[in-house]
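job 3f2a | input accepted
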Amino acid sequence: MPDFIPFEIIEGDYDGGMVLLADHAMNRLPPSYGSLGLPESAFRRHIAFDIGVEALTRQLAARLNVPAVLGCFSRLLIDPNRGEDDPTLIMKISDGAVIPGNYPISDEESQRRLDTYHRPYHRAVERTLAKAGASGRAPLVLSLHSFTPAWKGVPRPWHAAVLWDTDHRAVAPLLEDLRRDPALVIGDNEPYDGALRGDTLYRHCMTSGTPHALLEVRQDLIADEAGIAEWADRLAPIFSRLNEDASLHEYRVFPSRTGPYPGQDAPSEHA
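job 3f2a | predicted structure (271 res):
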């Protein structure tokens, strides 16, 4: 029995039409890596995981009775939301923190982390999506992340944001629903751009035409139980309404803003 499982699958109704993903749910490291040479305080920061997302995902999965896949290793070890050839896959410096255990790093060690943590997580996502789509009806995939309240001293005004590439199907109604609350500032591809070649949604949704969206919630809003419960209360009915839309259960490939898909000469949209 391995001493560290790189993913957790929360079981739910696989015929229900929805799957939740949480790439950066946890700040854990396998025992053999110690702390990567970092102080314990580093693992309470955003550089280690997406604060609040694990508990938010668990609450939503329970309320909606849908399956979810959680990443169980810290992004400091290897980032599951990056392509295998992405230069930020294993960070040497993150928001001013030098990561001694990642620099220098050998090709053999990089490969070991891919084989032992990154790839098993993505195989778990693949299996979960295949099981949820076994009937031929595409599952709606909603990926949960969180972002810092400020960056380099500049406050971020958004309470939450929706990130996406070009598949707008789930994005437009999700933005509309979130913006019904006049007290919320909702970003559209802010503070990050959702088009990232090789990331989780590119790999599992863009290339296959699976409907999806990525939701970021500001970390100070889900940093405690009360905030997590508030956002679960807000998001559960919104996600449920999205899931009732038949158009969000059809496979339809959209071109990526990052360029042609592997093996494709030029980007093109097809049903």
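job 3f2a | The chain has one domain: 7-249.
job 3f2a | closed
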